[in-house]
Amino acid sequence: MMTVTDKRQVKLTELEAALYSAGHPLDMEELMQALGSRSEKMVLRFVDELAKKLAARGGALEVKMLPENRVVMQLKPEYGKMVRQFTNRPLLTVGPLKTLGYIVYNQPIEQAQVLNYRGVHVYTQLRLLEDMALISRERTERGVVIKTTPFFADYFDLSPDPGKSRLQIIDLFSNLHPELVARG
């Protein structure tokens, strides 16, 4: 017969498995489903306990609370540079990355504007970015409007607020390449 401690350890292990295998932030509904619970409070206690256990262990992974009650298991930032040598390929090639940058800087933006700026090849890039959950497209009366997703903000460690993420990117580029920002 399982003790309360055993059951608690099973739930912590299930939470760790869910966060690790997801590879992206999970919202409260997903976490509650993973733990078979209807109590947001209980799930938050498990998240807090798992975060503390990982921190006490001192490994390379951390559990982090994100805005809107989302949780992610991720590599600690200080290991990012070291592990790049082990990644097989970049997340995006230059073309889709330029398209994404244009969207981030100008969002929300009409798809027609992106098409005019980036050319007809942009449809394939937009589909890729959408499949990767980095952007969302919404049909309106005036056309299709594109903006980044919360996953985009989480992945690139930016604010989920488009205005703030735009300022963060401007700040990032001004630190990396001040000559580019000075030109506008």
Give an overview of the whole structure.
- The chain is an alpha+beta fold and 184 residues long.
- It has 2 domains: 4-83, Arc Repressor Mutant, subunit A, CATH 1.10.10.10; 94-183, Winged helix-like DNA-binding domain superfamily/Winged helix DNA-binding domain (Arc Repressor Mutant, subunit A, Orthogonal Bundle), CATH 1.10.10.10.
- Helices cover 58% and strands 14% of the residues.
- It has 10 helices and 5 strands; from the N terminus they run H-H-H-E-E-H-H-E-H-H-E-E-H-H-H.
- The strands form 2 sheets. It has a 3-stranded antiparallel beta sheet with strand order 3-5-4.
- A hairpin with a 3-residue loop joins strand 1 and strand 2.
- It is elongated, with a radius of gyration of 20 Å.
- It starts with a helix and ends with a helix.
- 16% of the residues are buried.
